[in-house]
């Protein structure tokens, strides 16, 4: 007989989901975006929330409907293409980009301000950080208790203190937005949300939450779906509040920062100005806890996928490899890692969005396999243009005539058109079937 969760356990499940999302990118990108979009804050926040909150929530729902993670959504593709896509996305969210970034942000914001820099201290920190990550990741049954009931409430209290101080003692008035943000604040905010990798993370975390539910004795699929949706709503609400707070922090920080190149150079002086020297300790605690919980979720998800897909390797072995490789990549440097990841994200993000849309709109679009594959193929083709464009390479001038090319969202219109055609063909088949009957 399946077990039902108590209200307190369901709330803890939501906190755990929220904690998985609230990691490295969530702390450093909103303050920088807020500073750049100071006088155009509302549309910038709206665009950012769409990709960093709305899409992850829809992705969790899609995962719940599909009854699995990324591999379940990717079944619409040919077998080899689905496997290749899953492996690539798990590597991006695992040892190549997202997981090493958690250690880098935790080091630069939570450790370096107190001891100074240097490759030796960074290397030692990354080894310690991923040692703890490995210990937690191979104990998935403890995730709900450790993350949901202990770490996240502390993290929320610390973030609430920042929000209160912004109201009581704001840093200053918003300054003029950067030129690119003045031109298209919504589109810039939408694309900035890519960098959090929240939608991609939702493809992984949904499966982690399902496994946590199973560990608690919840085997009924309908209950799992309901609990996963509730957890997603709790996580989305928490993320939205955090992002709005950090955007506002960045928008009012113009007087205390000097030509910052990344979010950490906005966050550190802003927090110090709000709380004094003690604020740096608050920031260190928030960032370290947030990054650690995200690293655990990503590592556990990667281990789950690769051990299930390639039967000859165990969960523990995969987790060890992910943590070891992440510790190595973490010594590349935060700015360099972000610069490398941007073109890749501009390519893979639209593909993930297309897969989620196909699942959520299945009632309207139908589930014709070839039609679904054509949607993904068109999305991938035009997303590749966005990815190449994001590298800074010179592009042919005729591409400027494509809708949303300058905004690096050229995939959106073709994908929408193919989905519309798919819906029309589905309706035509239904009408023909009704006439024949």
UniProtKB/TrEMBL annotation:
Gene Ontology molecular function: L-isoleucine transmembrane transporter activity; L-leucine transmembrane transporter activity; L-valine transmembrane transporter activity
Lipid bilayer topology: Multi-pass membrane protein
Residue intervals passing through the bilayer: 7-29, 41-69, 81-99, 119-138, 150-171, 191-213, 225-246, 266-298, 318-338, 344-363, 375-396, 408-425
Pfam families documented for this protein: Branch_AA_trans
Sections of the chain in a coiled coil: none
Keywords: Amino-acid transport, Cell membrane, Membrane, Transmembrane, Transmembrane helix, Transport
Subcellular location: Cell inner membrane; Cell membrane
Residues of the signal peptide: none
Keyword Transmembrane recorded: yes
Predominant location: membrane
GO terms for cellular component: plasma membrane
Function: Component of the transport system for branched-chain amino acids.
Similarity remark: Belongs to the branched chain amino acid transporter family.
PANTHER family: BRANCHED-CHAIN AMINO ACID PERMEASE BRNQ, BRANCHED-CHAIN AMINO ACID TRANSPORT SYSTEM 2 CARRIER PROTEIN
Protein's UniProt name: Branched-chain amino acid transport system carrier protein
């Amino acid at each position: 007989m399946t077990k039902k969760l108590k209200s307190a356990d369901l709330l803890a499940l939501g906190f755990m989901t929220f904690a998985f999302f609230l990691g490295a990118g969530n702390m450093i990108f909103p303050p920088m975006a807020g500073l750049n979009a100071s006088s155009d804050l509302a549309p910038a926040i709206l665009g950012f929330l769409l990709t960093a909150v709305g899409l992850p929530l829809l992705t969790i729902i899609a995962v719940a409907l599909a009854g699995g993670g990324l591999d379940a959504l990717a079944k619409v593709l040919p077998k080899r293409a689905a496997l290749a896509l899953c492996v690539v996305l798990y590597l991006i969210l695992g040892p190549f980009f997202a997981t090493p970034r958690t250690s880098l942000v935790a080091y630069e914001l939570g450790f370096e301000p107190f001891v100074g820099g240097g490759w030796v201290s960074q290397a030692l920190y990354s080894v310690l950080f991923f040692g703890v990550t490995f210990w937690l990741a191979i104990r998935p049954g403890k995730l709900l208790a450790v993350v949901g009931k202990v770490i996240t409430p502390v993290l929320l209290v610390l973030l609430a203190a920042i929000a209160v101080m912004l109201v009581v003692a704001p840093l200053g008035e918003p300054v003029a937005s950067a030129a690119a943000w003045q031109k298209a604040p919504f589109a810039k905010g939408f694309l900035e949300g890519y960098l959090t990798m929240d939608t991609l993370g939702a493809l992984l975390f949904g499966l982690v939450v399902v496994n946590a539910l199973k560990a608690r004795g919840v085997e009924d699929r309908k209950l799992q779906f309901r609990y996963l949706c509730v957890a997603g709503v709790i996580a989305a609400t928490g993320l939205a509040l955090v992002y709005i707070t950090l955007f506002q922090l960045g928008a009012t920080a113009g007087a205390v920062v000097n030509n910052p190149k990344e979010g950490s150079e906005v966050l550190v002086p802003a927090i110090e100005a709000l709380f004094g020297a003690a604020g740096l300790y608050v920031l260190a605690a928030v960032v370290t806890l947030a990054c650690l919980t995200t690293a655990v979720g990503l590592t556990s998800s990667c281990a789950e996928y690769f051990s299930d897909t390639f039967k000859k390797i165990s969960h523990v072995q995969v987790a060890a490899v992910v943590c070891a490789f992440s510790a190595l990549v973490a010594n590349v440097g935060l700015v360099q890692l972000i610069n490398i990841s941007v073109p890749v994200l501009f390519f893979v993000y639209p593909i993930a969005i297309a897969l989620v849309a196909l699942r959520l709109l299945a009632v309207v679009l139908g589930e014709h396999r070839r039609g679904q594959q054509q949607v993904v193929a068109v999305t991938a083709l035009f997303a590749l243009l966005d990815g190449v464009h994001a590298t800074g390479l010179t592009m042919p001038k005729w591409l400027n005539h494509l809708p949303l090319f300058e905004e690096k969202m050229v995939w959106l219109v073709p994908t929408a058109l193919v989905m519309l055609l798919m819906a029309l063909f589905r309706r035509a088949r239904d009408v023909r079937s009704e006439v024949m009957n």
